[in-house]
Amino acid sequence: MEPLNIEKFSPKKAELQALVLESQALTLPDPKDKEQVKKIKEARLKLRTARTTITKAGKEWRDEAIAFQRAVIAKEKELVAIVEPEEVRLEGLEAEAKQVQDREDRREFLPRRIERLATLADSIEISEAELLDMDGTAFEAYFNWRSADKNDKDRQANAEAQRKIDAEATKLAHDKALVEAEARGRIEAEDRAKREIDAKARREAEDREAEAEQKRIAKADQEADERYQAFLKDHGYNSQDFYTTQDVGGVITLWKKVATYDSNEHGPAQL
Question: What is this structure's pTM?
Fold first, then answer.
């Protein structure tokens, strides 16, 4: 594959700059000047052609670069696959040897580790093999965790003991308050029962008054309607004739259309 060369892609910068300088000299003092508008359009089309040419060439070179990149990646993976498995195998052997040697080196610190853990007296068991598997950082983290756990459990135990003391004191105070509350409760219950009886009596009286008022209003509305219907009947109102009513401030006037005279036909029009 031919090596990529960015200079092959680059158009002549001087030509582009000259094209831009040429167009920058154009102005349009009079938008109605058709000749000048034509020159501006021609210059714009030249710039557009230059731009699209650059874009097309750039795409072609990007596609070629991508294809080259993919070929390099494929070849890289092929070659790495030859040596990497053996490299990993040897790394594993080295790691195994180092792990064994590190465990042996840590054996001299084992008694001190066991002694430090025993001072915690937290009843947690751990084997010597597990302690040997830990490097210095891992052991310190493990010791700190057990120490913090022991302290937390001690705090919880102390808190529980104090909670029992506080609970007993609270119970005594509660029993005393309960006796006093029962006495107040009896008095309050009697007062509440009396208030409820009085309130019920007031509600019943109010309900009776409201019911009587509703009946009075309904009766008044019915009587008013009956008087109105009697008024209409006394004056011959019926739905077939041309009657209408007018209500002004509660005073109702009944009107009836009698007849219509059409002067063009010289005769009365029938209703």
Answer: 0.33
